Hints:
Blueprint: H1 23-29, H2 31-50, H3 58-83, H4 91-108, H5 113-138, H6 142-161, H7 171-178, E1 180-181, H8 192-218, H9 226-248, E2 253-254, H10 255-273, H11 275-285, H12 287-292, H13 297-323, H14 334-344, H15 356-375, H16 380-404
Antiparallel strand pairs: 1-2
Helix pairs in contact: 2-15, 3-9, 3-10, 3-13, 3-14, 3-15, 4-5, 4-6, 4-13, 5-13, 7-13, 8-9, 10-11, 11-13, 14-15, 14-16
Amino acid sequence: MSGSTLTKDSKPAPAPKTGSANPFVAITQNLRESGIYIAFVVVVVLFAILTDGLSLSPGNITNIVLQYSYVLVLAIGMLIVIVAGHIDLSVGSVVALTGAVSAQLVIGSNQPWWVGVIAALGVGLLVGAWQGFWVAVVGIPAFIVTLAGMLLFRGLTFFVLNNVSLSPFPAQYGKIATGFSNGLIGGNGYDAFTLLIAVLAVVAFAVTQVRTRIAKIRYQQVVDAMPLFVLKIVVVAAVVMAFAWQLANSRGLPYVLVILAVLILTYSMVMKSSVFGRQVYAIGGNLAAAQLSGVNVRRVNFWIFVNMGFLAAVAGVIFSSRSNGAQPSAGNSFELDAIAAAFIGGAAVTGGVGKIQGAMIGGLLVGVISNGMQLYNVDQSLQSVIKGLVLLLAVAFDVFNKRRSGVR
């Protein structure tokens, strides 16, 4: 009898599990993941009302992308650090140091702009290797190592710049953070190329979601109900196209957004599909179990900090490009913005939980709140209070979810 024939004692394979047919119920069942997206939409709508639509104008949306791109780059690396159960307090100083090295070469020594970029990235990798050695090999807690690094690299920044600012960068360097792709394929009053890229991104997202759903069904895993699945794709497509339309009606596609998109896609795949990504989650989730499973914890921790140094250098290049120079005080509090983005985006304080897209939404949420309060002329001191409360509530929400699910 063939393996596909059922006997009277045999039972058909169980149907794949699906979420509730009611989208609202499904969302509430996954509040940990969906809450940040709901909060983001609420904040966007709130400031759109308070500012009479000014916060959603093409020019303002473009400015948000340009102003907070370096925070999002830092948030990618910080999310990985936090998932592994560490913290990095030095990234703001590394941003300043890498920007200073680049400025000293390009402005001070008249080197080509790309030499400054390569040197900055090289310094970032060296900084990451330095801190990774002390954390992974010597065994000093990351909090202490990076606290020392915050002071050390800030001092090196003053030394490299000789306590003075350097500016301006050549035009080619400035285009890294302030340049735009506009008019490549025309458009009647808008940049059609920006819309084309957005359409391709939506199609890629939809195809990825469908393939992931098919794979989960094949392995009898839980999937969202079809109405919620379709709704998710439609909402994402609508948001992306609305965002692209605003960019297309402003100055076109920012180069820095292309850099950020490449980083998001790359690191999302690394954390989701690679051995390294799974090992990072394993270390943060249960260090003892990861060690017993054969994970080389020292090696993974070392490369986590090398990667953080690299991304801090990328942020340093972007920030110095946007600032059109390097200052000894650059990067102050950047580490706090990156940490806030990761935690607000759903990263767990104890490690083992967090996604790249969540950190990006968390960073954008902080950016939208800051931008909206500036447009609404909120006092600077009150802005800090509100951002502090947002971070506190995000972490409290994480703790509440753990207690509700019985996790200690």
